[in-house]
Prior knowledge:
Layout lengths: L1 E3 L2 E3 L11 H5 L2 E9 L2 E2 L2 H14 L10 H14 L6 E10 L12 E10 L12 E10 L13 H12 L4 E6 L4 E4 L3 E6 L2 E4 L10 H11 L5 E4 L4 H4 L4 E6 L3 E5 L1 E2 L2 E2 L3 H16 L1
Parallel strand pairs: 7-8, 7-15, 11-12
Antiparallel strand pairs: 1-2, 1-6, 3-4, 3-5, 5-6, 8-9, 10-11, 10-13, 13-14, 15-16
Amino acid sequence: MVNSNGHILNKEDASLSIYNRGFAYGDTVFETIKISHNKVFFLEDHYFRLMASMRILRMEIPMYFTLEFLETELLKLIAANNQSHVTVRAKLQVWRKEGGLFNPITNDVDFLISTKVLEIDFYVCNDSEYRVDLFKDYYIAPSLLSTLKSNNRLINVVGSIYAKENNLNNCLILNTNKSVVEALNANIFLVKGTTIKTVPLYDGCIKGVMRKQIIDIIKLMPEFSFEEVSISPFELQKADELFLTNTITGIQPITHYRKRVFNTEVSKNILAKLNVKVRLT
């Protein structure tokens, strides 16, 4: 079952028009949300990011599109799918209603929510080998649009194929200034000594909800200083640790970048603090 504009439908009955603007022009934004046992993780952060994304794309935000409405629609679908006692990945997509070519005839929106069951309830440390390298075939142009979660993910798709072809778990994307921006599906953090860095939004990285949680945690750790600064590819091999973050996985330590092998102590420490934060919120 899916939730289409507030109506619970079978997947087969939720087909999209061939004129759907998300399909035709990528005129859509989305949120990937983790929900465990009817608890929506970081709901406010997802909601406010969605509202900001819609404003940037000049979509009309309906009056009823409140935080409470979003939570109700998410949990309504979970109940319909008998998923209230498991953990799921929910994807909320919002697109401009069909009509027009590049220039739409309306800024009103439709939405669709779908869910998929996850095997693990909370965030766990993956101790498996995790190899990454740079993806340099294409670059991200740093701008406000590149920070949005939209359907325009061709670099991520082609990069994922490249990673599979080269037996990598992930790739790191560069911007047109040749700075590291993010991984194919996550934000990146770098640990060097007592300093932890992550990429600033103006370099073009996704404004990740988990990125925000991790930044808040690091700022409460007196043993570390935190910086939002550009990261050059040359810094990667000099780092003590590298780790990736997203809402579904939490924290994924990078174990290998080219010939460099990394520690994972700091990322495991932050992961423990993240799980405490999840339980308390």
